[in-house]
Amino acid sequence: MSEATAPNRLTLDLERSGDTAIVRLSGILVAGVHNFLYTEVSQLIPESKRIVLDLTELAHMDSMGLGTLVRLYVSAKSAGCALELVNLGPRIRKLLGVTNLLSVFAICGEQGIRMP
Hints:
Elements: E1 4-6, E2 10-17, E3 20-29, H1 34-42, E4 50-61, H2 63-78, E5 82-86, H3 90-98, E6 106-108
Parallel strand pairs: 3-4, 4-5, 5-6
Antiparallel strand pairs: 1-2, 2-3
Helix pairs in contact: 1-2
C-alpha cells in the first residue's frame, strides 16, 4: 500500500514502526473513494496495536468519508487497536466538531505522531 490511488482522488502512504502504522492521506475523502480507505486501513488492524491517520494533506471530506472514519474506529476498537487522527485541518476539525465526533477520536496535535 506504499503508494496507492483510487480515482485520482485519494492517496495513501504507509509507514510502519513495530506495531504502529501511520497512514498519510492526501487528496479528498468522499463518496466513491471511501471504501478504498476502509479496505486498505482495515487490513492493518489485525497486526497493529495503533493506527495513526495523518490528515495533513487531506483537503476535503464528505459524510461518506466521515462514516468511513467511524467504521474504522469501531473495527479497530473491537480488535483492541487504537485509531488516532493527527494534523486535522480547520475544515476537517470543524466537521468533526459539528458532528460531535472530536471527542470520540484520539486527536493528536501538530505532528503529534509518537513513534514507539
